[in-house]
Amino acid sequence: MRELTVTLFFLFLATFSLGQNATYSSSYKPIIFVKDTLVDFKTVKQGESATGQIVVSNKGERDLRISNVRGSCGLIVLNFPRSEVKPGESNIINIRYDTSRLGVFKRVLVIHSNSEKNSLKIKVKGEVIP
Questions:
Q1: Structural domain tally of the chain?
Q2: For 50-72, what is the mean pLDDT?
Q3: What is the CATH number of the domain that holds 61?
Q4: What is the rounded average pLDDT of the residues 75-90?
Q5: Residue 2 is assigned to a structural domain of this protein
Q6: If you ran DSSP here, which 8-state letter would residue 59 be given?
Q7: What's the pLDDT at 45?
Q8: Straight-line distance from the first to the last Cα atom of the chain, in angstroms, rounded to the nearest whole number
Q9: How far is CA 63 from CA 30, 32, 51, 60, 117, in A?
């Protein structure tokens, strides 16, 4: 009887452990998706508004949380989704570039999230003319 109890205990433990591993499989994580990883403002006159949008989608099985969005020098993040992006849904990140400086610019925007890839880089480029 004791052997049967020990055997059943280990069988239960093994089954429970296998179930836990399957639950945390990478297929059940949020997956951030951005169609275009390049935002091209092309040519913008100095002092004009240079704004853009980045559509962020969740291709995963769990809610996507965007924890932060950072732009490099002169690139301003106007807003990003503070609420979770449900699986299969999308949301928008609005950005603006400071056009007070003349010349060609190449900047990077970094999106931090709970996706499989913790950060996603978006390139932003253009030229400010007089």
A1: 1
A2: 94
A3: 2.60.40.10
A4: 91
A5: no
A6: -
A7: 97
A8: 90
A9: 6, 10, 28, 8, 14
